Amino acid sequence: MKNTTHLFIKNQEIEEIISNLANEINLFLKNYQNETIVFVGVLKGCIFFFTDLLKKIDHPDVVCDFLYLTTYSGRKKISNHEFNLLCDLKYNVKDKMVIFVDDVVDTGWCLKLVTDYIIKTKQPKDVKIVSLLRKNLDNNTFLKIDFLGKTIENKFIFGYGLDLDEKYRNLPDIYYVD
Ligand code: IMP
Ligand code: MG
């Protein structure tokens, strides 16, 4: 059967979700005014979300860094319990507040493994998670998302940084295939 593509979340709605998330995070950061906050984008899916969100963060001392890893090979997951770390953090996050920025949480394993890895190897002061989207709600209750944009049905999505077999990341809206 041939897959069909559907428009799922328009860019205008994404912008509204991000404005609300930024307000929430800015409120939270009021208690950390004198601290460096390290925002860590989880590449590559985070690219558009990271830049759109960070432009709205109102804090005097922000550092941006990235982790580049893969959990999928094409549309196929590698495994729930492993990831390929292609590029590690450059900034020293020891004793710093780290906020991970991810595009979509599915099983939750990727962020669980990544945050465990960072906590164990780099001793940050604290770790928070912000995700634009979350699907598969019943399967990832072990992962606490501190700032969540929107919950969605369990569909494979692409566009706005997310890929379908490495393509379509540049699309401003989010689509799904069925
Ligand atoms: P998880 O480990 O199952 O939570 O998946 C984490 C990562 O897989 C996300 O940060 C995405 O980069 C990628 N991913 C999960 N679902 C999708 C999807 O529907 N489309 C594209 N990438 C996805
Ligand atoms: Mg991702």
Plain-language structure description:
With 178 residues, the chain is an alpha/beta fold. 23% of the residues lie in helices and 33% in strands. It has three helices and eleven strands. The strands form three sheets. The protein has a six-stranded mixed β-sheet, with helices on both faces. Strands 1-11-10 form a three-stranded antiparallel β-sheet. The chain has a two-stranded antiparallel sheet with strand order 4-5. Helix 2 links the parallel strand 2 and strand 3. The protein starts with a strand and ends with a strand. The model has no long low-confidence stretch (mean pLDDT 92). The structure holds inosinic acid (IMP) and magnesium ion.
Which terms would index this structure?
three-stranded antiparallel β-sheet; 33% strand; binds inosinic acid; globular; six-stranded mixed β-sheet; 11 strands; alpha/beta; single chain; 178 residues; binds magnesium ion
Instruction: Tell the overall outline.
Output: globular
Tell me the radius of gyration.
Answer: 16 Å
How many helical elements?
A: 3
N-end to C-end Cα span: 10 Å
Molecules bound to protein: inosinic acid, magnesium ion
The level of helicity is 10-25%
What does the oligomeric state look like here? single chain
The helix-strand sequence is EHEHEEEEEHEEEE
Main pleated sheet? 6 strands, mixed
Q: Which consecutive residue ranges, at least 5 long each, have pLDDT under 50? A: none
Strands across the major sheet, in which order? Answer: 6-3-2-7-8-9
What's the average pLDDT? 92
Task: List how many beta strands DSSP finds.
Answer: 11
Structural class per helix/strand content? Answer: alpha/beta
Approximately how much beta-strand content do the residues carry?
Answer: 25-35%
